[in-house]
Fold:
Amino acid sequence: MSVLVYVENWDGHFKKASFELVSYAAQLAEMTGTEPVALSIGRVEESELRKLGRHGIGQVIRVEDERLAHLDTRAYTRVISEVADVVKASAVVLAHNVTGKALAPRLSVRLKAGLVTAVTGLPKSINPFTVVKKSFSGKAFALAEIRTEKQILTLAQNSFKLVEKEIQVVITGFDPASTGAVSTHVREVFRQTGKILLTDADIVVSGGRGMKSPDNWGPLEELASLLGAATACSRPVSDEGWRPHEEHTGQTGKIIAPTLYIAVGISGAIQHLAGVSSSKFIVAINPDRDAPIFEAADYGIVGDAQKVLPALIEAVKEAKGA
Amino acid sequence: MKILVCLGHVPDTTTKIRFTDQGTRFDQSGVQWVINPWDEFALTRAVELRESGQLPVETISVVTVGSAEAEPTIRKALAIGADSGFRINLEPMEPYQVAVQISELIKREPFDLIICGIESCDYNGNSVGGMLAELLDYPSLSAVSGINPVDGALVFSRDIDGGKEMVSQDLPVVAVVQKGIAKEPRIPAMRGIMMARTKPLTVIQPSETAEYVKMISFELPASKPPCKKVDPDHVRELVRLLQEEAKVL
Structure:
Protein backbone atom coordinates (compact mmCIF):
# COMPACT_ATOMS: atom_id res chain seq x y z
CA MET A 1 0.00 0.00 0.00
CA SER A 2 1.13 3.54 -0.61
CA VAL A 3 0.31 7.23 -0.57
CA LEU A 4 0.76 8.62 -4.08
CA VAL A 5 1.54 12.31 -4.41
CA TYR A 6 1.37 14.04 -7.79
CA VAL A 7 4.15 16.64 -7.91
CA GLU A 8 3.73 19.19 -10.66
CA ASN A 9 6.77 20.93 -12.16
CA TRP A 10 7.15 24.37 -13.70
CA ASP A 11 9.61 24.23 -16.61
CA GLY A 12 11.33 21.29 -14.95
CA HIS A 13 11.43 22.79 -11.46
CA PHE A 14 9.59 22.32 -8.22
CA LYS A 15 8.46 25.11 -5.88
CA LYS A 16 8.41 25.48 -2.13
CA ALA A 17 4.74 24.40 -2.26
CA SER A 18 5.81 21.15 -3.98
CA PHE A 19 8.07 20.29 -1.05
CA GLU A 20 5.34 21.13 1.45
CA LEU A 21 3.06 18.80 -0.48
CA VAL A 22 5.53 15.90 -0.45
CA SER A 23 6.23 16.52 3.27
CA TYR A 24 2.50 16.13 3.83
CA ALA A 25 2.34 12.92 1.79
CA ALA A 26 5.31 11.44 3.65
CA GLN A 27 3.68 12.21 7.02
CA LEU A 28 0.35 10.80 5.86
CA ALA A 29 2.09 7.60 4.75
CA GLU A 30 3.78 7.33 8.13
CA MET A 31 0.42 7.78 9.87
CA THR A 32 -1.24 5.10 7.76
CA GLY A 33 1.70 2.70 7.75
CA THR A 34 2.17 2.88 3.98
CA GLU A 35 4.95 3.96 1.58
CA PRO A 36 5.02 7.48 0.13
CA VAL A 37 5.51 7.54 -3.66
CA ALA A 38 5.84 10.68 -5.80
CA LEU A 39 4.71 10.88 -9.42
CA SER A 40 6.29 13.42 -11.75
CA ILE A 41 4.94 14.00 -15.26
CA GLY A 42 7.12 15.82 -17.78
CA ARG A 43 10.82 16.57 -18.22
CA VAL A 44 12.48 17.00 -14.85
CA GLU A 45 16.22 16.50 -14.28
CA GLU A 46 17.27 13.72 -11.96
CA SER A 47 18.96 16.22 -9.62
CA GLU A 48 15.64 18.02 -9.19
CA LEU A 49 13.73 14.78 -8.56
CA ARG A 50 16.31 13.83 -5.90
CA LYS A 51 15.32 16.93 -3.92
CA LEU A 52 12.06 15.16 -3.05
CA GLY A 53 14.14 12.77 -0.91
CA ARG A 54 14.93 15.59 1.51
CA HIS A 55 11.34 15.52 2.64
CA GLY A 56 10.87 11.81 3.16
CA ILE A 57 9.98 10.54 -0.33
CA GLY A 58 11.99 7.43 -1.21
CA GLN A 59 10.29 6.42 -4.44
CA VAL A 60 9.78 8.64 -7.45
CA ILE A 61 7.97 7.54 -10.59
CA ARG A 62 8.80 9.55 -13.67
CA VAL A 63 6.50 9.70 -16.69
CA GLU A 64 7.74 11.44 -19.83
CA ASP A 65 5.09 11.37 -22.51
CA GLU A 66 4.99 13.97 -25.30
CA ARG A 67 1.20 13.84 -25.30
CA LEU A 68 1.22 15.18 -21.74
CA ALA A 69 3.16 18.35 -22.60
CA HIS A 70 0.03 20.38 -21.82
CA LEU A 71 -2.68 19.67 -19.30
CA ASP A 72 -5.29 17.39 -20.83
CA THR A 73 -7.33 16.51 -17.76
CA ARG A 74 -8.72 13.26 -19.17
CA ALA A 75 -5.32 11.93 -20.26
CA TYR A 76 -3.62 13.02 -17.02
CA THR A 77 -6.35 11.35 -14.98
CA ARG A 78 -5.88 8.08 -16.85
CA VAL A 79 -2.12 8.15 -16.27
CA ILE A 80 -2.28 9.08 -12.57
CA SER A 81 -4.93 6.40 -12.00
CA GLU A 82 -2.82 3.80 -13.77
CA VAL A 83 0.17 4.64 -11.57
CA ALA A 84 -2.06 4.66 -8.47
CA ASP A 85 -3.12 1.10 -9.31
CA VAL A 86 0.45 -0.02 -9.95
CA VAL A 87 1.71 1.28 -6.60
CA LYS A 88 -1.50 0.17 -4.81
CA ALA A 89 -2.23 3.66 -3.58
CA SER A 90 -4.72 3.92 -0.75
CA ALA A 91 -4.57 7.72 -0.98
CA VAL A 92 -3.68 10.21 -3.72
CA VAL A 93 -2.57 13.69 -2.69
CA LEU A 94 -2.46 16.78 -4.94
CA ALA A 95 -1.89 20.50 -4.43
CA HIS A 96 -5.00 22.68 -4.14
CA ASN A 97 -3.91 24.77 -7.12
CA VAL A 98 -5.18 25.17 -10.68
CA THR A 99 -3.94 21.72 -11.75
CA GLY A 100 -4.86 19.85 -8.58
CA LYS A 101 -8.37 21.29 -8.58
CA ALA A 102 -8.80 20.17 -12.20
CA LEU A 103 -7.57 16.61 -11.67
CA ALA A 104 -8.73 15.62 -8.18
CA PRO A 105 -12.48 15.35 -8.97
CA ARG A 106 -11.78 13.22 -12.03
CA LEU A 107 -9.48 10.95 -10.01
CA SER A 108 -12.16 10.60 -7.35
CA VAL A 109 -14.58 9.14 -9.90
CA ARG A 110 -12.02 6.99 -11.73
CA LEU A 111 -10.53 5.49 -8.57
CA LYS A 112 -13.88 5.34 -6.72
CA ALA A 113 -12.26 7.28 -3.92
CA GLY A 114 -13.92 10.00 -1.85
CA LEU A 115 -12.46 13.47 -2.40
CA VAL A 116 -11.88 16.17 0.18
CA THR A 117 -10.48 19.43 -1.22
CA ALA A 118 -8.49 22.16 0.54
CA VAL A 119 -7.54 20.05 3.57
CA THR A 120 -5.63 22.04 6.18
CA GLY A 121 -3.70 19.26 7.89
CA LEU A 122 -3.20 15.56 8.51
CA PRO A 123 -6.28 13.39 9.16
CA LYS A 124 -7.89 13.61 12.61
CA SER A 125 -8.48 9.86 12.49
CA ILE A 126 -7.67 7.07 10.04
CA ASN A 127 -10.54 4.70 10.77
CA PRO A 128 -12.96 6.29 10.04
CA PHE A 129 -10.92 8.63 7.81
CA THR A 130 -11.69 12.18 8.92
CA VAL A 131 -9.92 15.36 7.91
CA VAL A 132 -10.46 19.12 8.31
CA LYS A 133 -11.06 21.27 5.22
CA LYS A 134 -11.77 24.90 4.48
CA SER A 135 -15.40 25.57 3.70
CA PHE A 136 -17.80 28.45 3.10
CA SER A 137 -15.09 30.35 1.22
CA GLY A 138 -12.69 30.24 4.14
CA LYS A 139 -15.32 31.56 6.56
CA ALA A 140 -15.44 28.18 8.32
CA PHE A 141 -13.79 24.78 8.64
CA ALA A 142 -15.55 21.46 8.15
CA LEU A 143 -14.65 18.02 9.46
CA ALA A 144 -15.24 15.62 6.57
CA GLU A 145 -15.41 11.85 6.68
CA ILE A 146 -14.39 9.84 3.61
CA ARG A 147 -16.47 6.67 3.46
CA THR A 148 -14.73 4.92 0.58
CA GLU A 149 -11.72 2.65 0.97
CA LYS A 150 -9.43 5.04 -0.91
CA GLN A 151 -9.03 8.79 -0.46
CA ILE A 152 -8.18 11.73 -2.71
CA LEU A 153 -7.01 14.91 -0.97
CA THR A 154 -5.97 18.35 -2.17
CA LEU A 155 -3.80 20.27 0.30
CA ALA A 156 -4.69 23.94 0.91
CA GLN A 157 -1.88 26.37 0.18
CA ASN A 158 0.47 27.39 3.00
CA SER A 159 -1.17 25.03 5.44
CA PHE A 160 1.60 22.50 5.98
CA LYS A 161 5.19 23.17 7.00
CA LEU A 162 8.20 21.59 5.32
CA VAL A 163 9.45 18.49 7.08
CA GLU A 164 13.16 17.79 6.64
CA LYS A 165 13.78 14.06 6.45
CA GLU A 166 16.58 13.00 4.13
CA ILE A 167 16.24 9.58 2.56
CA GLN A 168 17.66 7.75 -0.45
CA VAL A 169 15.59 8.25 -3.61
CA VAL A 170 14.92 5.56 -6.20
CA ILE A 171 13.73 6.99 -9.52
CA THR A 172 11.80 4.67 -11.82
CA GLY A 173 10.70 5.49 -15.35
CA PHE A 174 7.15 4.47 -16.23
CA ASP A 175 5.56 4.16 -19.63
CA PRO A 176 1.79 4.53 -19.25
CA ALA A 177 -0.46 2.36 -21.41
CA SER A 178 -3.58 4.42 -20.81
CA THR A 179 -2.76 7.98 -22.01
CA GLY A 180 -4.99 7.74 -25.09
CA ALA A 181 -5.69 10.52 -27.55
CA VAL A 182 -5.42 14.09 -26.39
CA SER A 183 -8.40 16.39 -27.03
CA THR A 184 -7.18 19.71 -25.59
CA HIS A 185 -4.99 21.54 -28.10
CA VAL A 186 -3.06 24.56 -26.87
CA ARG A 187 -2.90 27.30 -29.52
CA GLU A 188 -1.12 30.04 -27.59
CA VAL A 189 0.43 30.57 -24.17
CA PHE A 190 0.72 33.93 -22.41
CA ARG A 191 3.03 34.04 -19.45
CA GLN A 192 3.34 36.74 -16.86
CA THR A 193 7.05 37.44 -16.69
CA GLY A 194 9.30 39.25 -14.26
CA LYS A 195 6.62 39.48 -11.59
CA ILE A 196 6.06 37.52 -8.43
CA LEU A 197 2.93 35.44 -8.81
CA LEU A 198 0.12 36.41 -6.51
CA THR A 199 -0.65 32.80 -5.60
CA ASP A 200 3.03 32.03 -4.84
CA ALA A 201 3.90 35.19 -2.94
CA ASP A 202 4.90 35.17 0.73
CA ILE A 203 4.04 38.86 1.02
CA VAL A 204 1.20 40.63 -0.81
CA VAL A 205 0.57 44.38 -0.92
CA SER A 206 -2.99 45.13 -1.95
CA GLY A 207 -4.82 48.35 -2.80
CA GLY A 208 -8.48 49.28 -2.56
CA ARG A 209 -10.68 52.18 -3.47
CA GLY A 210 -8.98 54.21 -0.74
CA MET A 211 -6.07 54.57 -3.17
CA LYS A 212 -8.40 57.08 -4.87
CA SER A 213 -6.98 56.88 -8.39
CA PRO A 214 -5.08 54.42 -10.61
CA ASP A 215 -2.34 57.07 -10.79
CA ASN A 216 -1.55 56.59 -7.09
CA TRP A 217 -0.22 53.05 -7.39
CA GLY A 218 3.45 54.06 -7.65
CA PRO A 219 4.23 53.98 -3.91
CA LEU A 220 2.29 50.74 -3.47
CA GLU A 221 4.35 49.09 -6.19
CA GLU A 222 7.53 50.51 -4.73
CA LEU A 223 6.70 49.03 -1.32
CA ALA A 224 5.90 45.69 -2.96
CA SER A 225 9.20 45.58 -4.80
CA LEU A 226 11.11 46.53 -1.61
CA LEU A 227 9.46 43.65 0.23
CA GLY A 228 9.71 41.18 -2.65
CA ALA A 229 5.93 41.11 -2.61
CA ALA A 230 3.22 40.57 -5.21
CA THR A 231 0.58 43.26 -5.80
CA ALA A 232 -3.16 42.68 -5.49
CA CYS A 233 -6.34 44.72 -5.37
CA SER A 234 -9.95 44.64 -4.20
CA ARG A 235 -12.92 44.00 -6.44
CA PRO A 236 -14.08 47.62 -6.96
CA VAL A 237 -10.57 48.46 -8.14
CA SER A 238 -10.51 45.70 -10.76
CA ASP A 239 -14.13 46.44 -11.75
CA GLU A 240 -13.18 50.09 -12.34
CA GLY A 241 -10.33 48.89 -14.54
CA TRP A 242 -7.72 50.58 -12.30
CA ARG A 243 -5.86 47.27 -12.06
CA PRO A 244 -5.98 44.03 -14.12
CA HIS A 245 -8.58 41.50 -12.97
CA GLU A 246 -5.79 38.94 -12.35
CA GLU A 247 -4.99 41.00 -9.25
CA HIS A 248 -8.48 40.83 -7.78
CA THR A 249 -8.40 38.96 -4.48
CA GLY A 250 -11.58 37.99 -2.70
CA GLN A 251 -14.35 35.46 -2.81
CA THR A 252 -15.00 35.91 -6.54
CA GLY A 253 -11.36 36.56 -7.43
CA LYS A 254 -8.20 34.88 -6.22
CA ILE A 255 -8.13 33.26 -2.82
CA ILE A 256 -4.68 33.63 -1.31
CA ALA A 257 -2.86 32.65 1.87
CA PRO A 258 0.41 34.59 2.12
CA THR A 259 2.45 35.01 5.28
CA LEU A 260 1.85 38.76 5.28
CA TYR A 261 -1.02 40.63 3.63
CA ILE A 262 -0.88 44.43 3.61
CA ALA A 263 -4.27 45.97 2.81
CA VAL A 264 -4.05 49.62 1.80
CA GLY A 265 -7.27 51.61 1.51
CA ILE A 266 -9.40 48.46 1.65
CA SER A 267 -12.45 48.63 3.90
CA GLY A 268 -12.70 44.84 4.25
CA ALA A 269 -16.06 43.73 2.88
CA ILE A 270 -16.92 40.16 3.86
CA GLN A 271 -16.32 38.97 0.27
CA HIS A 272 -12.84 40.50 0.30
CA LEU A 273 -11.97 38.96 3.66
CA ALA A 274 -13.04 35.53 2.38
CA GLY A 275 -10.20 35.71 -0.11
CA VAL A 276 -7.47 36.79 2.29
CA SER A 277 -8.44 35.64 5.79
CA SER A 278 -6.10 32.65 5.61
CA SER A 279 -3.11 35.03 5.54
CA LYS A 280 -0.89 34.49 8.58
CA PHE A 281 -0.63 38.21 9.38
CA ILE A 282 -2.75 41.07 8.07
CA VAL A 283 -1.75 44.73 8.19
CA ALA A 284 -4.46 47.31 7.49
CA ILE A 285 -3.95 50.92 6.48
CA ASN A 286 -7.23 52.83 6.30
CA PRO A 287 -8.42 56.32 7.30
CA ASP A 288 -11.71 54.97 8.73
CA ARG A 289 -11.05 53.59 12.22
CA ASP A 290 -14.34 51.63 12.11
CA ALA A 291 -13.57 49.85 8.83
CA PRO A 292 -14.17 46.08 9.17
CA ILE A 293 -10.65 45.36 7.87
CA PHE A 294 -9.34 46.28 11.35
CA GLU A 295 -11.30 43.37 12.84
CA ALA A 296 -9.43 40.96 10.59
CA ALA A 297 -6.07 42.71 10.93
CA ASP A 298 -3.24 41.97 13.36
CA TYR A 299 -1.67 45.40 12.95
CA GLY A 300 -3.25 48.60 11.74
CA ILE A 301 -2.60 52.23 11.01
CA VAL A 302 -5.53 54.62 10.93
CA GLY A 303 -4.42 56.99 8.23
CA ASP A 304 -4.52 57.96 4.61
CA ALA A 305 -2.62 55.80 2.11
CA GLN A 306 -1.02 58.83 0.42
CA LYS A 307 0.60 59.83 3.71
CA VAL A 308 1.33 56.43 5.27
CA LEU A 309 2.82 54.66 2.25
CA PRO A 310 5.80 57.01 1.72
CA ALA A 311 6.60 56.86 5.45
CA LEU A 312 6.32 53.08 5.42
CA ILE A 313 8.63 52.87 2.40
CA GLU A 314 11.24 54.97 4.24
CA ALA A 315 10.89 52.85 7.39
CA VAL A 316 11.32 49.61 5.45
CA LYS A 317 14.36 51.00 3.61
CA GLU A 318 15.89 51.98 6.94
CA ALA A 319 15.19 48.60 8.49
CA LYS A 320 16.55 46.74 5.49
CA GLY A 321 19.63 48.92 5.39
CA ALA A 322 20.39 48.34 9.06
CA MET B 1 -24.78 23.41 -30.46
CA LYS B 2 -26.59 22.44 -27.28
CA ILE B 3 -25.43 24.08 -24.07
CA LEU B 4 -26.16 22.95 -20.52
CA VAL B 5 -25.38 25.20 -17.55
CA CYS B 6 -25.28 23.59 -14.11
CA LEU B 7 -26.70 25.82 -11.40
CA GLY B 8 -25.91 25.64 -7.74
CA HIS B 9 -28.23 27.14 -5.18
CA VAL B 10 -26.10 28.72 -2.46
CA PRO B 11 -26.19 31.22 0.40
CA ASP B 12 -25.63 34.82 -0.73
CA THR B 13 -21.95 35.83 -0.56
CA THR B 14 -22.62 38.33 2.24
CA THR B 15 -24.14 35.62 4.46
CA LYS B 16 -22.80 35.48 7.97
CA ILE B 17 -21.94 31.84 8.49
CA ARG B 18 -23.40 30.16 11.60
CA PHE B 19 -23.94 26.58 12.66
CA THR B 20 -26.54 24.82 14.82
CA ASP B 21 -27.01 21.43 16.49
CA GLN B 22 -23.61 21.51 18.18
CA GLY B 23 -21.91 22.61 15.00
CA THR B 24 -23.18 19.74 12.87
CA ARG B 25 -25.51 21.72 10.61
CA PHE B 26 -25.32 24.96 8.66
CA ASP B 27 -27.82 27.39 10.16
CA GLN B 28 -30.14 28.28 7.28
CA SER B 29 -32.33 30.71 9.20
CA GLY B 30 -32.40 34.12 7.60
CA VAL B 31 -30.13 32.99 4.77
CA GLN B 32 -30.78 34.45 1.34
CA TRP B 33 -30.27 31.79 -1.34
CA VAL B 34 -28.97 32.80 -4.74
CA ILE B 35 -27.59 31.20 -7.91
CA ASN B 36 -23.91 30.41 -7.30
CA PRO B 37 -22.35 33.60 -8.72
CA TRP B 38 -19.97 31.66 -10.99
CA ASP B 39 -22.90 29.70 -12.43
CA GLU B 40 -24.71 32.96 -13.12
CA PHE B 41 -21.68 34.23 -15.04
CA ALA B 42 -21.65 30.94 -16.98
CA LEU B 43 -25.29 31.31 -17.98
CA THR B 44 -24.74 34.93 -18.97
CA ARG B 45 -21.89 33.86 -21.26
CA ALA B 46 -24.01 31.12 -22.84
CA VAL B 47 -26.71 33.67 -23.66
CA GLU B 48 -24.10 36.10 -25.05
CA LEU B 49 -22.66 33.35 -27.28
CA ARG B 50 -26.07 32.75 -28.80
CA GLU B 51 -26.70 36.47 -29.28
CA SER B 52 -23.31 36.94 -30.96
CA GLY B 53 -24.69 34.94 -33.89
CA GLN B 54 -21.19 33.66 -34.61
CA LEU B 55 -22.06 30.06 -34.00
CA PRO B 56 -25.36 28.24 -34.02
CA VAL B 57 -26.63 27.70 -30.47
CA GLU B 58 -29.66 25.44 -30.71
CA THR B 59 -30.66 25.37 -27.07
CA ILE B 60 -29.52 26.55 -23.67
CA SER B 61 -30.70 24.43 -20.78
CA VAL B 62 -30.07 24.69 -17.07
CA VAL B 63 -30.05 21.99 -14.42
CA THR B 64 -30.02 22.13 -10.67
CA VAL B 65 -30.06 19.43 -8.03
CA GLY B 66 -32.32 20.56 -5.23
CA SER B 67 -35.71 20.57 -3.56
CA ALA B 68 -38.72 22.59 -4.76
CA GLU B 69 -37.19 25.56 -2.94
CA ALA B 70 -34.60 25.75 -5.72
CA GLU B 71 -37.25 26.46 -8.37
CA PRO B 72 -37.04 30.27 -8.17
CA THR B 73 -33.38 29.85 -9.12
CA ILE B 74 -34.36 27.95 -12.27
CA ARG B 75 -37.10 30.46 -13.11
CA LYS B 76 -34.58 33.25 -12.78
CA ALA B 77 -32.24 31.39 -15.15
CA LEU B 78 -35.11 30.98 -17.63
CA ALA B 79 -35.81 34.71 -17.32
CA ILE B 80 -32.14 35.48 -18.06
CA GLY B 81 -32.42 33.51 -21.29
CA ALA B 82 -32.24 29.73 -20.83
CA ASP B 83 -34.81 27.80 -22.91
CA SER B 84 -35.56 24.96 -20.55
CA GLY B 85 -34.79 23.86 -17.02
CA PHE B 86 -34.34 20.58 -15.20
CA ARG B 87 -34.60 20.10 -11.47
CA ILE B 88 -33.39 16.85 -10.01
CA ASN B 89 -35.40 16.45 -6.86
CA LEU B 90 -32.76 15.77 -4.25
CA GLU B 91 -31.25 17.74 -1.38
CA PRO B 92 -27.60 18.03 -2.51
CA MET B 93 -25.24 16.72 0.14
CA GLU B 94 -21.95 16.22 -1.68
CA PRO B 95 -20.46 16.89 -5.12
CA TYR B 96 -20.19 13.23 -6.13
CA GLN B 97 -23.90 12.67 -5.63
CA VAL B 98 -24.72 15.84 -7.61
CA ALA B 99 -22.37 14.84 -10.45
CA VAL B 100 -23.90 11.36 -10.73
CA GLN B 101 -27.42 12.78 -10.99
CA ILE B 102 -26.46 15.29 -13.68
CA SER B 103 -24.44 12.69 -15.62
CA GLU B 104 -27.54 10.53 -15.90
CA LEU B 105 -29.49 13.39 -17.41
CA ILE B 106 -26.73 14.03 -19.95
CA LYS B 107 -26.56 10.34 -20.89
CA ARG B 108 -30.24 10.51 -21.86
CA GLU B 109 -30.05 13.97 -23.41
CA PRO B 110 -26.58 14.82 -24.78
CA PHE B 111 -25.12 18.32 -24.82
CA ASP B 112 -22.05 19.67 -26.64
CA LEU B 113 -20.94 22.22 -24.08
CA ILE B 114 -21.58 21.76 -20.39
CA ILE B 115 -20.63 24.70 -18.16
CA CYS B 116 -20.19 24.69 -14.39
CA GLY B 117 -19.06 27.48 -12.07
CA ILE B 118 -15.67 26.90 -10.51
CA GLU B 119 -16.63 26.72 -6.90
CA SER B 120 -19.78 26.58 -4.90
CA CYS B 121 -19.94 29.15 -2.11
CA ASP B 122 -21.04 26.65 0.50
CA TYR B 123 -18.84 23.60 0.95
CA ASN B 124 -16.33 24.76 -1.66
CA GLY B 125 -16.14 21.38 -3.25
CA ASN B 126 -15.35 22.88 -6.69
CA SER B 127 -15.64 19.32 -7.86
CA VAL B 128 -18.91 18.75 -9.69
CA GLY B 129 -17.57 19.70 -13.15
CA GLY B 130 -14.55 17.40 -13.09
CA MET B 131 -16.52 14.50 -11.62
CA LEU B 132 -19.24 14.93 -14.23
CA ALA B 133 -16.68 14.86 -17.05
CA GLU B 134 -15.08 11.68 -15.72
CA LEU B 135 -18.45 9.97 -15.23
CA LEU B 136 -19.20 10.71 -18.91
CA ASP B 137 -15.61 10.12 -20.10
CA TYR B 138 -15.67 13.62 -21.60
CA PRO B 139 -12.68 15.96 -21.62
CA SER B 140 -12.81 18.87 -19.19
CA LEU B 141 -11.26 22.31 -19.00
CA SER B 142 -10.70 24.06 -15.70
CA ALA B 143 -10.19 27.67 -14.63
CA VAL B 144 -11.77 28.87 -17.89
CA SER B 145 -12.00 32.65 -18.03
CA GLY B 146 -13.07 33.04 -21.66
CA ILE B 147 -15.17 31.19 -24.24
CA ASN B 148 -15.04 32.84 -27.64
CA PRO B 149 -16.19 31.88 -31.10
CA VAL B 150 -13.30 31.88 -33.60
CA ASP B 151 -13.95 30.81 -37.21
CA GLY B 152 -17.10 28.95 -36.26
CA ALA B 153 -15.48 26.99 -33.41
CA LEU B 154 -14.94 27.74 -29.74
CA VAL B 155 -11.64 28.91 -28.31
CA PHE B 156 -11.30 28.70 -24.55
CA SER B 157 -8.88 30.66 -22.45
CA ARG B 158 -7.85 29.03 -19.23
CA ASP B 159 -5.65 30.13 -16.37
CA ILE B 160 -2.43 28.34 -15.70
CA ASP B 161 -0.03 29.19 -12.88
CA GLY B 162 1.26 32.60 -13.87
CA GLY B 163 -0.45 32.95 -17.20
CA LYS B 164 -3.11 31.94 -19.65
CA GLU B 165 -3.49 29.38 -22.40
CA MET B 166 -5.75 29.64 -25.42
CA VAL B 167 -7.00 26.18 -26.30
CA SER B 168 -9.07 24.50 -28.97
CA GLN B 169 -11.09 21.69 -27.59
CA ASP B 170 -12.86 18.70 -29.13
CA LEU B 171 -16.53 18.62 -28.11
CA PRO B 172 -18.39 17.55 -26.08
CA VAL B 173 -16.59 19.13 -23.15
CA VAL B 174 -17.26 20.14 -19.57
CA ALA B 175 -15.92 23.66 -18.97
CA VAL B 176 -15.41 24.81 -15.40
CA VAL B 177 -15.56 28.60 -15.55
CA GLN B 178 -14.43 31.36 -13.23
CA LYS B 179 -14.01 35.11 -12.95
CA GLY B 180 -13.70 36.84 -16.31
CA ILE B 181 -16.07 34.59 -18.25
CA ALA B 182 -18.66 37.40 -18.45
CA LYS B 183 -18.41 41.03 -17.35
CA GLU B 184 -21.58 41.26 -15.28
CA PRO B 185 -24.23 38.69 -14.52
CA ARG B 186 -27.27 39.51 -16.61
CA ILE B 187 -30.33 40.89 -14.86
CA PRO B 188 -33.59 39.44 -16.16
CA ALA B 189 -35.78 41.91 -18.05
CA MET B 190 -39.54 42.12 -17.48
CA ARG B 191 -40.20 40.42 -20.83
CA GLY B 192 -37.83 37.60 -19.84
CA ILE B 193 -39.59 37.15 -16.51
CA MET B 194 -42.97 36.91 -18.26
CA MET B 195 -41.64 34.40 -20.81
CA ALA B 196 -39.96 32.30 -18.11
CA ARG B 197 -43.36 31.37 -16.69
CA THR B 198 -44.24 29.32 -19.76
CA LYS B 199 -40.85 27.75 -20.44
CA PRO B 200 -40.54 24.02 -19.65
CA LEU B 201 -39.21 23.06 -16.22
CA THR B 202 -38.91 19.30 -15.88
CA VAL B 203 -38.65 17.67 -12.47
CA ILE B 204 -36.64 14.45 -12.45
CA GLN B 205 -36.64 11.92 -9.61
CA PRO B 206 -33.13 11.07 -8.42
CA SER B 207 -31.47 7.67 -8.57
CA GLU B 208 -29.61 6.02 -5.72
CA THR B 209 -25.97 7.03 -5.27
CA ALA B 210 -23.23 5.84 -2.99
CA GLU B 211 -22.14 8.28 -0.32
CA TYR B 212 -18.45 9.09 -0.76
CA VAL B 213 -17.96 11.91 1.74
CA LYS B 214 -19.97 13.14 4.69
CA MET B 215 -19.61 16.44 6.51
CA ILE B 216 -19.45 15.62 10.21
CA SER B 217 -19.19 19.02 11.85
CA PHE B 218 -18.30 22.66 11.28
CA GLU B 219 -16.27 25.20 13.15
CA LEU B 220 -15.73 28.93 12.79
CA PRO B 221 -12.13 30.15 12.71
CA ALA B 222 -10.75 31.13 16.10
CA SER B 223 -11.35 34.83 16.72
CA LYS B 224 -8.29 36.97 16.30
CA PRO B 225 -6.77 39.01 19.10
CA PRO B 226 -7.63 42.71 18.67
CA CYS B 227 -5.71 44.66 16.05
CA LYS B 228 -2.64 46.49 17.37
CA LYS B 229 -2.93 50.07 16.18
CA VAL B 230 0.21 51.98 15.35
CA ASP B 231 0.32 55.78 15.35
CA PRO B 232 0.47 57.07 11.75
CA ASP B 233 3.33 59.37 12.79
CA HIS B 234 5.40 56.42 14.03
CA VAL B 235 5.32 54.05 11.07
CA ARG B 236 8.75 52.71 12.11
CA GLU B 237 7.00 51.01 15.01
CA LEU B 238 4.95 48.91 12.53
CA VAL B 239 8.13 47.74 10.80
CA ARG B 240 9.63 46.87 14.19
CA LEU B 241 6.55 44.81 15.14
CA LEU B 242 6.61 42.98 11.81
CA GLN B 243 10.30 42.19 12.29
CA GLU B 244 10.46 41.39 15.96
CA GLU B 245 7.00 40.20 16.95
CA ALA B 246 5.49 38.68 13.81
CA LYS B 247 8.94 37.86 12.39
CA VAL B 248 7.73 38.21 8.81
CA LEU B 249 10.14 40.84 7.45
Summary: The first helix of chain B runs from residue 37 to 52. The longest strand of chain B covers residues 140-150. Residues 2-223 of chain B form a domain with the Rossmann fold fold (CATH 3.40.50.620). The helical segments of chain B are 37-52, 71-80, 95-108, 128-136, 190-196, 235-245.
